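Thread: "does anyone have the structure for this chain?"

Original post by V.I.:
We have the sequence but no experimental structure in hand. Need at least a predicted one for the grant figures.
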Amino acid sequence: MGTSCPKPDTKPAIYLLLRSLLLNFSEAWFQESIQQLQRRADAPRCGRTDPDGYYHLAGRAELAMQVQKLVLPHFGFEATKEGVADMIRHCAAFLSDQDVAHLFDAINKKLGMSPAACQRFRRLAASLE
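Reply from O.Q.:
Generated one for you, tokens below.
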């Protein structure tokens, strides 16, 4: 399934994409669902938080896809797992920009990652460029 919208190729366009994702991931239902996933992940550790900062969180990708499938097609990306990977690779070229990097980290915090996990993911994404 193709998409007719062009992919963002400027900082303002990338910023708009990331801002759209941040706003949607900030919704109460989504944040409550992320917290549920974190509690489920913490249960085997007697409620102690993940020492890896929730870098990996079971169920997060499927939950995030509920938002991504609505947002990504408006920015030229497929509403699929592959489309998400393409979007991350596409944004990687802009991660040297402080504003974009900050927004990228803010999204990952909304996805339940600790600040250290956000930095780890940003380093991984930047290496994909």
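V.I.: this helps a lot. The chain has a mean pLDDT of 91.
O.Q.: and The longest helix spans residues 11-25.
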